Protein 1
Amino acid sequence: MSAIATASLEPGSQSAAHAVAHALPRDEYFGDATPGKIGMWIFLLSDAFSFGGLLLAYGILRGGAAVWHHPGEPSLGIPFTAFLTFLLICSSVTMVLAVAAANEGHRRQTMLFLALTALGGIGFLTGQFHEYFGLTPGHGLVHEGLIFGQSAYANTFYVTTSFHGAHVLTGTIYILVTLARTAAGKTNANDIEVLGLFWHFVDLIWILVFTFIYLL
Amino acid sequence: MTQGHASRKPYWIVFGSLAILTVLEIIVATPSVGIPKKPMVLALITMALAKASLVGLFFMHLRSERRALKLTVALPFLFPAIYALVLIAEAGWRR
């Protein structure tokens, strides 16, 4: 019976050749996919439905509203959010490079790319804080008159983007914990791949949120 | 799990495509460009779905997964998709 081999990221292991840590039986239908990976995909599917529910609710409210954007409420800053979108796309690239490095057993390279990805997440969260509250006095949507509870426009915006922001925060903590565990030699390539799935999902959802909430 | 030195080139191609599509989205959504509402909405949704598919297929490696996993992930999206189409049809009927 063939088995699933996963590159270990223990200190000193620089190649995949001598770095086989786990051996699981191959599944007839799912092949090489580990239980952790299948579990993450199922979780992401349920999470996608949560976002789907929020976006559909947004569609229903907006489609049925006589006035969507009330006078006095600010427009959303598209150029700044486009920059945040680009930041998340960049962090997806560094994450996929971390996964590739982990698959090849390159521990230091994996850690470097994980750190860069976490920086992208921290940058995004800082940007979102600035968008809501302003890093400098007088700025931020809250100060400009987009108040939670005052309109469907404000409510759908804050609920959807902050739910996504909570995912970025969770993802960033998940990356930092995995980075620390990798530094201690306690992870393998599969751990990095499962983490990567979560992070790419956060990017994927933002692509849809950016289009539906900001651009449409 | 793929081991050995796989090419990073597809990742950079996807990165470039995502960046270009994002710029195109912003251009299409700019009011002064003057694209009528319906084609604009259609173009924006198409580009967003294309970008999401690129991330799923290449960054999340869904492209190289077994059929069972692909179907497990993709098929359930038919339900929200049908619901969204019903909503759009209903909104169109009301107008």
Note: Chain A touches chain B through 55 residues (CB under 8 Å).
Protein 2
Amino acid sequence: MNIRDADEDLIPSDKPLKIGTHTLASRLIVGTGKYESLSGMRDSLIASQSRCVTVAIRRERLYDGQGKNLLDYIDLERYILLPNTAGCYNAVDAVRVARLGREILKSLENPGSDWVKLEVLGDSKTLLPDPLATLEACKRLVDEGFQVLCYTSDDPIMAVRLKAAGATAVMPAGSPIGSGQGILNANNLRIILEYLKSDDPDYPVIVDAGVGAASDVAVAFELGADGVLLNTAIAHAKDPILMASAMHHATLAGRQSFLAGRIPKRLYAQASSPEEGLITSRPHPTES
Amino acid sequence: MLTISFNGQSISVSEETTIADLIHSSGIPSKFCAVEKNLEIVPKSQYASMQLADGDSVEIVTLVGGG
């Protein structure tokens, strides 16, 4: 498919994020859950500049108290939908939910009908993924022709296994879903990025879950993540629209910072002003 | 009358009730939903013709906000 407009948001020297057959104009993917109102959600999605939003599959509760439904507030020309399997605790259920999501998106004629955000949870307290069930569901969905964007922990070996199983993108959690703790183990994320991209630099690695503030988004991109997926950090911010805008700017800032190439970290200082021509003397002549 | 499971609840429906009838009674535009009968997806093209049988288990789902 074509890049969904908003080319003005692309960094000129950057290429757009490609996930399988889909190309996204923004590297930020946002969720549609937990908003106080659907109109607030719509305005936050706009402020985030995202062009890809996640949705969940549930029993018929389409209409809210005012008789409105989610799809009245999502411009299907603007957004590609990414259906998830949230709430599934085994591979069989995840495959069922993925198929149902595909069916709905097909009838909406949304291009997201061929992909899924796979989430198979192991425990309702941590919402951490069940790695064995995730791998099994990933294989089954790949066999059924899905492009699988796979939620996983930040375990590098599991990430390698999921890529080998045919996942279109691996999406490690920065920290538990909705926890707002940011990226707890940057070193694991570094290893995942190195392993998954070593012979395949464009393979998409997306940080999914744990973002609390815009700085977390910038850190993810600076580490080299291709995208960030978040929901609660915007939906539950005091001012969701303002936070959505902050997330957009952090996406651009973090990505630009990554592309620009940061300076190495050093233990000691390096003066920014010239040493030559100083009219003063050093207080401690211990250095050479 | 037939007894079926509809979204986890046991309900009675008249004989010859179709998937399309169930969707209509739920009030959801069929464009926004997907249907699973006895764990198999029901294609939209079969909504009007597929009749329910006693003991069928039907799920009608739609999209909601999620992350």
Note: The mean pLDDT of chain A is 92.
Protein 3
Amino acid sequence: MTYAGEPPVAQPQGAAAASHDRDAPGDRIETDAVIVGAGPVGLFQVFELGLLEVKVHVIDSLSYPGGQCIELYPDKPIYDIPAVPMCTGRELTENLLKQIEPFGATFHFGQEVTQVERQPDGRFHVETARGTRFLARTIFVAGGVGAFQPRQLRVDGIDKFEDTQLFYRVKDPAQFAGKNLVMIGGGDSALDWSLNFAGGVRGDSPYKAESVILIHRRDGFTAAPASVARMREMCDAYQMQFMVGQATGFEERDGRLAHLRVTGSDGVTRLVPLDMLLVFFGLSPKLGPIAEWGLALDRKQIVVNTETFETSVPGVFAIGDVNTYPGKKKLILSGFHEAALAAFGAAPYIFPDKRVLLQYTTTSPKLHKVLGVETPVFD
Amino acid sequence: MTHVVLESCIRCKYTDCVDVCPVDCFREGPNMLAIDPDECIDCAVCIPECPVNAIVPEEDVPGDQQHMIKLNAELAPRWPSITRRKSPPPDADEWKDRRGKLSELIR
């Protein structure tokens, strides 16, 4: 995971890739379908709805597609995708993005759905934390095990400095320029931002801090080896410092976070002065508001029927890890199946006057047109 | 199905797992954690967090640890919820490689 460098996977191609930056609050987007969650199952839902010629909007709390596949196991091999003997979470995501390219889905990244409300006309008002609003005929909840949130620093009482001196992500790098920074973590985000604030890999960062101290609990990193090597060079050149240790407390002066207490592997606790503290412990999922949308739940998972994967609320479907039914297995391949049936289940809401028939991508000229491919000639 | 905390947790209780649980299903005993089987959604996110590999899905509980399935179910409702990581016991590292710690369990 990285916020500083390149996105971890290619951004959706061919999609009207709305980034969260472009979402202006105010205009309500009218759509046939909103998919909540851009993990593998949410992405495949785009495909299945696409074949039925339904255009969709996809919302995800992460800034990029892939869900658990990208956030939890981007480079671990997956062996149980039918007809794909082995692929990584990243490859699966990239292949799905390629597969859904013809359908021009609009992605709304970096925002969590906060509100789902049924309107008098049967449609749904959907709103995100950034104020993007939708009026949707159907909703597909592909929320996995929840929205990914930054893992918190566990030091009693330090929470009160969040967003003033304690940060879990860099939204505006300029706010850290010229400051004395302490960074905690051993992954790509921690290393990339440390290098950036220490002057940049090529010494040309516009956001150079006054000082940078990187703290990690051990002298071993999950970040890219090149970044680690560069960090060591910069330490040798006195451009930044690295300490092995864990934050165990803090000292306050005039209501400000003045020092962090860092206990080293030698058992000695040192006081580290700072202006700003940046913590990069990665992300973990929290089920959060999905549990409060008024859908019938069983053990915090959404109850669906196995014919259409519709929830207790007509027009709202739930697919993938977020749902439950007798015999449910949390497998990506099950989610794909669920997406196909959910698309057909939703058709009566989207096309009330049309009979939607199953067609095959091998033989249907109509589907070939939808997919933007040539119809093969059979000898 | 549920996930199960095995004997390895006893006297170690590193608590890394509780931070990542999306549904807050961990319960804290005096020297061990338990998973509430009525709350766990089998997402498996906690498994790689445990430094002593104490968490497994119910189906993968080894033969000599089968009693832990029942013990998690029995202890979880009695113990308070834990949702934030805390420091492990000071001697946790000394206990992490020991086997057969059931007699050490404080209920």
Note: Helices of chain B lie at 16-20, 67-75, 92-95.
Protein 4
Amino acid sequence: MFGSTLLIVVSWALLAVFVVAFILRTIRIARLPVHLRWELAPVPHEKGKSHYGGSYLEEFEWWTKPREKDSIKEASYMLQEILLLKSVWENNRRLWWFSFPFHTGMYVLIGAGALLLLSNGLEVVGVQTAGGWQGGISIFAGAGFALGGIGALGLLVSRFVDPRFRDYTTPAALFNLILLLAIFVTGGYVVAASQNLAGSVWDFGTGLVTGDLSVELSGVLQAHVLLALVFLAYLPFTRMMHFVAKYFTYHQVRWDDEPLVAGGRLEQEANRLLEQPVTWGAPHVNANGSKNWVDVATEEMKT
Amino acid sequence: MSAKKVRVKDIGKRGDEVLCPIGPEDLVPLPPPYDNPEDEPAWKELGAATQEKVVCNLDGVVALSLPKPKDKAEEEEYVEKFRAGLKKLLEKNNNWTFLQPLLLSLDYCVNCQSCNDACPVFTASGGKEIYRPTYRAEVLRRLVAKYVKPGGKLFSRFTHGDIDLNWTTISRLYELSYRCTLCRRCAQACPIGLDNGLISRELRKLFSQELGWAAKELHEKGTVLQLEVGSSTGMNQVVVKDNIEFIDEDMADETGIQVETPWDKEGADVLLIHNAGEILAWPENPGAFAIILDAAGIDWTLSSAEVAYDGVNYGLFYDDVQLSRVAVKHSEAAKKLKVNKIVAGECGHQHKAMLTVSDRVLTGELAVKRESCLTLLEEIVFSGKIEFDPSKNDFPVTLHDPCNIVRNLGIVEPQRRILRYLCPQFREMTPHGVDNYCCGGGSGFAVMSPNNFPDWRLSVGGRVKLKQILDAFADQPGPEVPKYLCAPCSNCKGQLRDLLQYYDVLEKSNITYGGLVELIVNAMVDVKEPFIKWEMH
């Protein structure tokens, strides 16, 4: 298929695209300006109140009371969302049966990758593990491929048969699912064909790092690795980045209930933003290009 | 087009047809005795003049009376303004107020449709495609992808799907942005945390702040009138003082308790700001507040400063500039009076606008402390300063949770602790609290009644809520037992009043409605005659 040199060059290029695009897109979201408060109950960090959706605004003269945050509740909420897809289970059970194995398959594969790093890391420091672990890791990854494949296939079929999705399914969404399905199928095939997936992937990774051009991958495995790298490079440009967006939608929108405090960071940031020029064109806004938010919000509107 | 499945791209096609007609025959059934389709009130027919002059090609309902353009050139002018507004919506200087939540909601939806069944409008309509929470959001996403993003014309069909930007698209989209009550149940259901309710609001904002299009009741007769005269009710300072004086007198006559509402008391602990609609439509509500605050010995006042005697802030529903202007006026009045805090009366959107959404606009001297009347009332009721006899409230009571107080602010328990204490037959709706359903009058709909929109607002928007109310009293469904629907929100009360009248609920089921303070006063030992009137008002 690919020559070793070309494979290594292409792999590095794809990995570089992934890393740079992923970081840039994440920074882009993180650097968006502070917005007006738009929280939505339940806010799980509300200590003693989150189980019914209550907030500190329930307290008489709330500004005189200490605000206690429950980080464990917040983490527990997120873990249930991430690992169990709780909202999907509660609001979209039909989809959950495919979405859950699809996501779990990916988590398993990430876990397999982490185990591979760990086992070889231990080898480097002198603990003999790789030989014993690689078979297990391959089987573990195989389970990930199976779960992911079932999920991806189910989601793909749903996009055609479920009337809720038909008009909302873009060519890009189908391409994404097909690409992932191909990755799961090729990976699963390698494991099923009793090839040492974990060992081969580690050798390939080592070859990438060391620039060892002698590394060779079998046909299907090479296709699998290339597809996975293409997917990584493509990922930051798609809606599949929702796993990153989710951090911001929860922590910086739904759960952002930080009140403005005189002289605090939020007030300084708000004052800076209120000095931004307004150019909205409707007559009642009365913007002339040089007025800022303070000007338009405080001008007398009596005629 | 009605018989065919409506697709997202259809919004810009065949402007001479109604995209997705709706009528009473489409709606999901109500419980008995409201389940006979023949008893469903008929919808008002649109007159020929209306059909000729205004845009009515979305669902056959007209909420906004947008005039049809004179010619192609005028159409093009509006389309260009829309395109300019679309860009401004994504600019930091023009839309820092909601840029992050908007971009997150635009860029990361995978159309899993988990939000669909959370929407009471979509559910009540029997699943009309245009009311699907993702429909209008998807229209905006496709427009942004094709007309704003670099390379959009080349790639957007692959990444987002097809759409055309033309007069038909923007005029239908404008009307469609007023088919969502901004209740945000869909946002709660979204696994990624995206917010289709916010997208409806951002669309309204684009139309208002760039094209100058907004619902008359919210803009001209709402924020503009409020900033001009002092109140969206049209009451000026003299009239509002006269009305409050009448209310004080009425309260003395009804309860035997003398109250004199204080005005402009400098240095008071509490500046109470009512939704001024209460003063005209439900005078017993501000009257009850006065009785309670006086009985508890609270040092309080109203302000006669323009805008500050009306807590309404319809800017919350459609326009950040108007939102900020009204919020600034409220804070300025409090600062001038040197009060300790502002307390928001029984009005949901006032709560949300005042307590949280305007928080990052009110910097420096404008950062006056603000709290809910519900926490103050709880403090009073359990302080022992007033003697209560809960047996005076021994009738079935249920609670409507205003979205803007409960789901959006997390103020859930104070009102419940009061009701559990003072109302022996209090029962919850299902679901309730932060999972409640909107009354159908949210986002300003309660004050919007043009053309045939009231039929839509009540039979579609309010349908799920009506079912909830009836279910809450299912153990005593008939008219023999009077029942009380407690709704501590002015706009919700307006909607519930219309909803109960529309379906003859007082007559068939003997359910009336009112606020929380009325129940508190009704339970006061010092109030000898029943304060609650079992009549539709």
Note: The beta strands of chain B are 270-273, 300-301, 341-344, 370-372, 397-399, 426-427, 483-486, 511-514.
